[in-house]
Amino acid sequence: MSIARRSWLKGSAALGLGLSLGTSARADTTLYRRGNDADPETLDPHKTSTVAEAHLLRDLYEGLLTYDNHGRMIPGAAAHWTVSSDRLTYTFTLRDDGRWSNGDPVTAEDFLFALRRMLDPRTGARYAEVLYPIKGAAAVNRGEAAPESLGVSAPDARTVIVTLAEPVPYLLELLTHQTSLPVHRPSIAQYGDAFTRPGRLVTNGPYALVDMVPNDRITLKKNPHFRDAGRIVIETVAFIPTPDLSSAVRRYAAGEIDSLSDLPADQMPSLKRRFGDQVQLSPALGLMAIAVNTRKKPFDDVRVRRALSLVIDREFLAEAVWGDTMSPAYSLCPPGLDNYRDPPELAGRETLPIDREDEARALLAEAGYGPGKAPLAVEYRFNTTDNNRNTAIALADLWRGIGVETRFVNTDAKTHFAYLRDGGDFDLARISWYADYSDPQNFLFLLRTGNDGFNAGHWSNAEYDGLLNQAAAERDVGRRAEMLFQAERIVLSALPWIPVLHYRSKALVSPRVHGIHPNLRNVAPTRFLSLSQG
Length: 534
Hints:
The protein is an alpha+beta fold.
């Protein structure tokens, strides 16, 4: 173990927190106090992009399909559907009892309007490219065609027809995502972008927005017009932002929060001892990586990017920093994705750390850094949580071993991700991504040329783009997988993003919360849960 690793562990130990499960008054069985990663930037489903927002939208809205509390796809606003023999046309029949939270009927026109709005470039949707499998979607989003040309139609009030440019194996799962959620047309017509405010937001899901207090809570109440309202037992859910995870654990222990969606990784041994099976861990389709600003010297030099990647001890980060709640990432795509093979991996996984450090120093020397020269100085940006701060400290220690000087810039999650999406200047930045559907395309599309909402470093590679285009047109799943495999190999060679860790979902769930089942999609809609007094 290097001096850097020993010094980090010593400092980390000082951050440990003694916890005890406090007692509280008998809790209300109709109010679920749900810890959430962060405040949302927006509740407009077509402008959201974070996991914290997805948790909220899952309670507020319902797509044509949705998820249950086991992570299984189930019918949502659509009662049933059919697929044409060429897998290009999907016909959905809406339920006849679908209602918005103000009592208006949910119609096919609502979905038609929403999908056109999502792809209209005037909306500025960050996720728009996710919907490119729909016929005409790319042209609409690029401003080359009118939204009315999109391959979606509503021949009557209960029928939605989606036509694809090429068949994709994940279309139904895509329709569970916020990109495909309906929005209430009269509200947008009346209020414009302000339609998401409390008192104005009209939603078609099991809950409706009541109040929003920044940095405190977002309160939802059961939508009495929802078709299954009679079977929903939790009347009110308060989403409580918990960026300070140590504080959140204290509140949980005191009985002030019923569940947490993230945990301080450096406290995992203590949490497991004190809370036992209230600590829930499960695999997840997620990636934590370092985005590199390839527009900026010296980070446009692949030798610099490779040197920084080589000395990252991913096993150390996963075990010592994250308490085995993450796994080392030597690929962009996590293992276990549908429609893929085992992903390619970064070279050097089996190489000794000292040999990787020697190779990294040699690469930096070739790039103009090293003994007798100015050291490489980097700025690392991250969104503030205990786990992310500890990771940043550990990365800086590892990079210091090859003569790299690191300084930090950290902000709240909303500011951090907005800064990257809006083209802010940076050197290195923490990026995280949870799959919207279990397919390698959902990771690889992030680095496509022009996808500036996610490709923060503006990396561009024509061969990579070409492989993604070929894969999109390929009907044979095996050949498609091989094309995507070759595309991922290009990313791992160029390293516009440096893979660091793959996620496992981690949560604290009170014994009084019933119905949460850890699953690969990391979903637990409140409508399927219940509470006891505890």
